[in-house]
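// run 5 | inverse folding | seed 20
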């Protein structure tokens, strides 16, 4: 699995992009719901980690069926219904945000060195992993103070920084074009 930092950063980027589309959503509370929806959907499938910790069996509980296309659809529908109920905003947009954010998580874990993800569960429990990994991944099994976490940070830090910088550049340009049109 990649570290939570990358999943949170991608969730934040999706929030910034979604901000452009949820234009009817005004007020601090509704903005908070939007950022919670994006960050929540980008990270929620790793909550099986808690079950693994409670049962002292991380590998047995974490990154199982939760990291599948089927689970992404379930999370997407959940975010769609909740978002609609809490804000009255179009369910289709919330559903899309939930689905894209969850798929981003599964894609990142697919691109991480490790045992891969059960992408097509329940059709098959086979695990799929990218032949060209992008992320070194976080090795919880090596303990909290393992020096391998420095490698994780050295790998993910520049990717996160580049992603945030690109998003900022793109959105700034979009805003300038918008003012220019107005
Ligand atoms: Zn994960």
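// decoded
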């Amino acid at each position: 699995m990649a570290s939570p930092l990358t999943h949170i950063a991608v969730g934040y980027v999706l929030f910034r992009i979604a901000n452009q589309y949820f234009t009817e959503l005004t007020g601090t509370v509704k903005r908070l719901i939007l950022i919670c929806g994006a960050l929540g959907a980008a990270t929620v499938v790793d909550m099986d980690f808690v079950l693994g910790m409670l049962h002292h069996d991380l590998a047995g509980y974490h990154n199982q069926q939760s990291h599948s296309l089927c689970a992404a659809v379930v999370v997407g529908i959940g975010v769609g219904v909740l978002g609609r109920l809490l804000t009255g905003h179009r369910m289709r947009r919330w559903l899309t945000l939930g689905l894209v954010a969850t798929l981003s998580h599964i894609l990142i874990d697919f691109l991480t060195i490790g045992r891969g993800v059960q992408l097509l569960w329940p059709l098959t429990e086979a695990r799929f992993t990218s032949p060209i990994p992008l992320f070194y991944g976080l090795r919880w099994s090596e303990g909290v103070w393992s020096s391998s976490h420095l490698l994780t940070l050295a790998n993910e830090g520049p990717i996160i920084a580049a992603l945030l910088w690109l998003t900022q550049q793109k959105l700034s340009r979009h805003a300038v074009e918008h003012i220019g049109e107005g």
